[in-house]
Design goal:
- Belongs to the UPF0162 family.
- It comes from Zobellella aerophila.
- The protein is of the alpha+beta class.
- The chain has twelve helices and six strands.
- The strands form two sheets. It has a four-stranded antiparallel β-sheet with strand order 3-4-5-6, covered by helices on one side. It has a two-stranded parallel ribbon with strand order 1-2.
- A hairpin with a 4-residue loop joins β5 and β6.
- The model has no long low-confidence stretch (mean pLDDT 91).
């Protein structure tokens, strides 16, 4: 069940920091004790970086401190692991995904008054930060600056060989966009690991951000079906069919509903 605390936080989303919102996700899934440990590790990291870099590092020094000195990096070997999608585990293991490492980098930039913004680039979260007044695109998975050719290669890996980077791909994302990206990635990691109950919890969180979104309700229906909650699944599928009758999947879902066990169950 989602905690009312999380829901109330998201009602005032723009008043809260991105890191706070990301830790809300952790708390909603695993409770306040796990969140408290994550906040302690984050504070330890912040204090260590101040000791190493001083109170006002520039962007180059912060990247060097976080990625080289503190050893944060993208996890190439276990990319789809849930360990890489949850901030508490990222802080513990010092490995993560582009979006989780990006949220951490944005948080530290904010702490040190370095101008930075997140970019929900297709398939790979990026960070734009300013070094000596010059805007640069950073890959938070590696901590390196990306050249235009590298960005185009990333884009083509997601959208196909004919894709070209446009200004729209590099627009700054707001907190809601980044939070949605984080939860979607987290849900995908749970699905990859066949943890359907936790994936369902992520779906419920997304519906706090996008109430009555038919596509998210459809996806929740698939999760209900995996959890043998056939009546709830049918209700979600019917909602999608009603709101998106021309979608090609609507006919598929109609057949899916017919195949579900919707009869009354006898209790023994």
């Amino acid at each position: 069940m989602l905690k009312s605390k999380v829901s109330s936080h998201w009602q005032t989303l723009n008043e809260r920091s991105l890191m706070t919102l990301a830790l809300d996700v952790v708390e909603s899934l695993y409770g306040c004790k796990v969140r408290d440990k994550a906040e302690f590790r984050l504070l330890e990291l912040e204090l260590t970086l101040v000791q190493q870099l001083g109170a006002e590092p520039d962007a180059n020094e912060l990247l060097e401190g976080l990625y080289r000195q503190q050893g944060f990096s993208g996890d190439w070997e276990r990319f789809f692991s849930i360990d890489n999608a949850l901030l508490d585990r990222v802080l513990e293991r010092r490995k993560g995904l582009p979006v989780t490492l990006g949220i951490l980098l944005l948080h530290l930039c904010d702490r040190h008054r370095i101008r930075a913004e997140g970019i929900c680039f297709p398939g790979h979260f990026l960070v734009r930060l300013w070094r000596q007044g010059e805007a640069q695109i950073i890959d938070p998975f590696t901590g390196r600056r990306l050249e235009p050719g590298e960005m185009e290669k990333l884009l083509r890996g997601t959208l196909g060989n004919l894709a070209k980077v446009t200004p729209e791909h590099l627009q700054a994302a707001d907190k809601a966009d980044i939070l949605e990206r984080l939860i979607n990635v987290t849900k995908a990691a749970f699905l990859f690991d066949k943890q359907f109950s936790q994936a369902l919890a992520c779906s419920q969180l997304l519906l706090l951000l996008k109430p009555e979104c038919p596509y998210e309700i459809r996806d929740r229906g698939f999760l209900f079906e995996q959890l043998d909650c056939d009546q709830l699944a049918a209700k979600d599928f019917e909602f999608f069919i009603q709101h998106c009758p021309d979608d090609p999947i609507a006919d598929v879902l109609q057949a899916q509903i017919a195949a579900l066990d919707l009869g009354p169950h006898t209790l023994h």
